[in-house]
Protein: DUF4384 domain-containing protein
Organism: Azospirillum himalayense
Amino acid sequence: MAFEATGIVRRTGFERVAAAAALLLMGACVTSGEQATVAQKPKTPPVRTVSNFSEALRCMDTLMWNHGKRDIFITSNGIPDATGRVAGGTKEMLITAVSRMSERSNAFRFVDFEPTLDDVNALYWMIGVQPNFRAPSYYVRGAITQLDDNVVSEAASAGISLPTFDLGISADQVMSVISVDLNIGELATRQIIPGLSASNSLAIISSGRGADAGAVIGKAGLSFNVSLNKSEGLHQAVRTLIELSTIEVLGKMTRTPYWQCLGIDQTNPAFAGQARDWFDSMAPSQRVAYVQRVLLAEGYYDGSDSGQLDERTRDAISRYQADNDLIATGRIDFDLYQRMLAQPSGQKGPGAPRLQSVSNAGGEGLPRATPAPAGAPPDLVLSSDRGPQPRYRAGEALVVKVQPTANGFVYCYYQDAAGSVARIFPNRFQPDSFVQANQQVEVPPGAQKPFNLRMDRPGASETIACVVSPDELGTRIADRYKTEDLQPIPGATLADVVGAYGSIQGTNVRSRQMAVQVLPAVSAQR
């Protein structure tokens, strides 16, 4: 066997108009204001005006706490200025916004490193080596994408002149537009996740009014003038946009009703549609598990979040619906989901489930699942794209399929015909060893494989071995086995590696093996 390496954004509809209070000076120059206010204009009234998003960030912190979101590790290499005209500390603004959203809930942990491709590879080599290391799962990328000066420019003046008196007045207003776009990507695969994006704009207004007068008193001339000016701070507008966009993209990523923190009504068509998309994309078992967690927290249900819609769950749903002005059908529909989403319970019951990434790339930073109960450790179903007894011709690629029967941490190794052993899961493209119950993981992942497990020895017999445990054992295994993924472990056999996991005290370990047969050259020619 040989390891072989292989090689829209929807506009949100938010529009924010910034305005700043300015100083009124008589007969003097005026400095620009520092504090911008934001006029929020959702598609349906009412319109709410807030000075900044500090309160909204605190609201998001509470919202994350209520929805049980915690320990989601993210990173970013900053929000560059694609226009080349705004110099500001955008990365620090982003970090500050994330920090304020996590003070109580610990929803997000920001890992400070620059996620270039080389850094990503080096980062994931550390998994299982550094005991306290947590790799970020997601990264935030974006830019200041637009800065249009003088989008609207208005000026007017008038004057009158008499033999002994002159009077003139003038007024002008200039508006510029600045935009910020943010997206969320999976760090391991570098794939931007569809739908997790924000594109918001602010209008920056500078206006002024002036008056001047002159008069003659006897032989002495007298003149005076009055001016009123106000202008916006550009960098304050950037901070406001980054805070707003951070609220939006992280709210979408965690599927929490972030619009509540922006003062937008739950019935707003745009955000009701967002909630509908979330509901429609959930598997039936996920819907049931979500409802069970809310019912448990509210005291309507005393079972587990099994994802099974049994009679006890139906009865609890009916009672919840009757108490919340819904038709007591006992069924899970969008109206029930929207009501529960709008009125989340505090963490009186189990937290929200562990986030799983779209392409199963995951990350060490995602929250840990509760270990399986004592006496019922997870087991494995090990197979391939050609079943549990696969046969391949030389040159063909193997796809391993592994599925735990309960939440657990999975580690898989490949032994080739020469006896060399290498870890194939977790790997730099699938760094998270945690797998949910009955979730099937493919190695290598995705439709376009980042690497291949290609058969290269006709007639050889090779072996896959996977172990699973309710505890994370990658940091506890002997150091000699903590080598780089997809590379041979010096002097190790498959039995050595499996035995090393089994010898770790205080945990339950199950292992499964699968023989891989490479057809002889004669068979390959038929």
